[in-house]
Amino acid sequence: MTGLVALLSFLAVFALVLILGNLVAKGASSLDLNFFIKNPVPAGQTGGGVANAIVGTAIIVGLAGLIGLPVGIGTGLYLAEYGSGQLGWIVRFVADVLNGTPSIVVGIFAWRWMVKPMGHFTALAGAVALAVLMVPMLARTTEEMVRLVPHSLREAALALGYPRWRTSLRIIARTALAGIVTGCLVGIARIAGETAPLLFTALGNLNFSTNLLQPMQSLSLQVFTYATGPFEEWHRLAWAAAIVLMGLVLLLATAARWAVRQRYGSSR
Amino acid sequence: MTTLPLEPVPTQADDARSALRGVNRGDQVFRVALTALALALPLLLVALVGQLFVSAWPAIKRFGFSFLWSSVWDPVAEVFGAAPMLFGTLASSLLALLIAVPLSLGVSIYLTEFAPKWLRQPIAFLVELLAAIPSVVYGLWGIFVLIPFLRGHVIGPLRAVLGWTPFVSGVFYGNSLLAGGIILAIMIVPYIAAVSREVLLAVPGNQREAALGMGATRWEAVWTAVVPYGRAGLIGAVILGLGRALGETMAVTMVIGNRHDIGLSVLQPAYTMAAAIANEFSEATTNLYLSALFEVGLILFFVTVVVNALARLLIWRVARGTAVGSRAL
Questions:
Q1: CB contact under 8 A, A105 and B329
Q2: How high is the pLDDT of residue B5?
Q3: Nearest-CA distance A254 → chain B (Å)
Q4: Contact at 8 Å (CB) between A52 and A217?
Q5: Which of B31, B281, B304 sits opposite A100 (nearest CB)?
């Protein structure tokens, strides 16, 4: 039986190796400089790149972070500092409910809320949808990290006559900073790969665009379009774009682990 | 006649007094600001539910409960029934659980009880990485690797063994319930494994020691003492995985075949609620069509909320007071 559980574990790891291996095998040969600096060419032609999608992902995810990070971290601080009452319980429960919400539902919510009134698809709506996905998770990790700070630190600061708010920000949040940064990186990694919330908000765009009030391409949307399209050439590009997307997410996930290790020695 | 100022002008003495009472202007501002940020989430939830409900209302009013069991989905005649999607969502998720539960329980038991110390962190990390792979990449892999593999090496033997059952019958098109279920299984393994590992770690050591002390082998100790103790939490982990599988969109959309049909065979194409929204939302030309899709979204939302709440309660029962599972949740 011990052998069986070991086998199952290696099977799970094997699945990961297999997927990453296939990605590299099928996409790596298409990665060259042009792939990163050129925009897509019309269907039927060969060549072209995903520069618009890389820039689009950076803009949409960056904007989502700009909206989501303050709200998420603030909510987490609230939960850790004042969250013992009824409102704290409600916020915690709502965060958990929203955390399990399917991303496609958030997508149609953002469509109804932002795209429909404005009359057209916008990158801004996509960023808002992604921010909505990120906030609940961020709130919970921030709370958890702040709670790890030893109580004696807070008492020491208060005993020295520090006001509570400065204690919270300068002592508590500062001490938990590495943990909070980790939470942020994990949150951003999670939304960077999301596709479903962008389908009806950012929509995708075959041209280069940095206009927040117009449709914008993202790597995930590009992979989806290319993978489900009918052309061989598109399939080739889909694998290459998937490598870039995967690389971005892995980079963020590894950075998150590194941030934890900086602060706590080894993770757990 | 002069009027006296109603509010006394604050003096230094007042400042000192309020400081002694523990009231500080900075504290008040800080607390109000944080509370305002924290209120964003409940307001968001209210807006989300309200918006979905209002948008779905025309369809709810028109079709009532028949929406849930009618399997007619005809945008031209404007008749909508979501039964095939409900069935497909349930079927693909259960199929995923069938594969993922043994796999992830195996992983978590191996990691907490048997694996050599130096191997635990790396394996846990690699399995967690499965959760980092974007859904759309799973879909890509499903289309170009998994489905050809199933066609070439799995369907034949599967027919030979189970061909007599209704579950393995008909033509294999590639895009199918089976492909969707397998992809979902790989996607939810990291969640179930991570939470059940934390649940097993939260089982007190004396459970284990007592069983070993009575002469049980290590496996018997795990199977008769540790796992039963954590049963509620493990079931919670599985239900959590179910919640993930129910709402998963992109990967499933890309491999499940997207056909409005109820069939028992796993070789046939099917449909899920999330996939229907992803596929048809931008094609929905009439208001009623759109409203029907919003109703699908509303149903999906409530189902996942109930499933997640249940999972949470069960996990809490084992690991009361700890943050087990909150990361994955």
A1: no
A2: 47
A3: 10
A4: yes
A5: B304
Query: Residue B127: its chain A contacts at CB < 8 A?
Result: 9, 12-13, 16
Domain spans of chain A, in order of start: 52-264
Q: Look at domain B63-318 and name its CATH class.
A: mainly alpha
In three-state secondary structure terms, B224 is helix
In a mutagenesis test of the B interface, which of A2, A4, A7, A9 is the best target, namely the one with the most B β-carbons within 10 Å? A9
Residue A129 to residue A202: CA distance in whole angstroms: 10
Among A83, A132, A165, select the one facing B30 at the smallest CB separation: A165
At residue A264, does pLDDT exceed 60? no
pLDDT at B12: 56
Q: Is A265 left (phi over 0), alpha (psi -120 to 50) or beta?
A: left
d(CA B94, CA B105): 16
d(CA A179, CA A169): 14
pLDDT at A267: 40
Burial of A30 (0-12, 13-18, 19+ CB in 10 A): middle
The closest CB to that of B132, out of A7, A253, A267, belongs to A253
Compute the distance between CA of residue B233 and CA of residue B221 in angstroms, rounded to an integer. Answer: 18
Window from A58-67, A134-143, B23-32, B44-53 with minimum mean pLDDT: B23-32
Residue A235 pLDDT more than 60? yes
Q: Which of the four CATH numbers 1.10.260.40, 1.10.3720.10, 1.10.10.10, 3.30.70.20 does domain A52-264 have?
A: 1.10.3720.10
Contacts of B247 in chain A (CB under 8 A): 100-105
* B88: closest CA of chain A, how far (Å): 16
Q: Range with the lowest mean pLDDT among A126-135, B23-32, B144-153, B277-286? A: B23-32
Residue A185, min C-alpha distance to chain B (Å): 12
Q: For position B166, what pLDDT does the model report? A: 86
Which secondary-structure segment (H or E) carries B64? none
pLDDT more than 70, % of chain A: 97
Between A46 and B83, residue with greater pLDDT: B83
Assess contact for A13 and B104: CB atoms under 8 A: no
Question: Please, what sign has the CA dihedral across residues A239, A241, A242, A248?
Answer: positive
Residue type, A56: G
The model's pLDDT over B143-190, given as tens digits with 9 standing for 90+, comes to 999 999 999 999 999 999 988 888 888 888 889 999 999 999 999 999
Tens digits of per-residue pLDDT, B270-309?
999 999 999 999 888 899 999 999 999 999 999 999 998 8
Domain boundaries, chain B: 63-318
Give the number of beta-carbon pairs within 8 Å between A and B.
263
Q: Which residue type sits at A234?
A: W
Report DSSP state, residue A45: S
Contact B134, A195 (CB under 8 A): yes
Q: Do B41 and A91 count as a contact with CB atoms less than 8 A apart?
A: yes
What pLDDT does A164 receive?
87
Which residue of chain A comes nearest to B175, CA vs CA?
A: A228
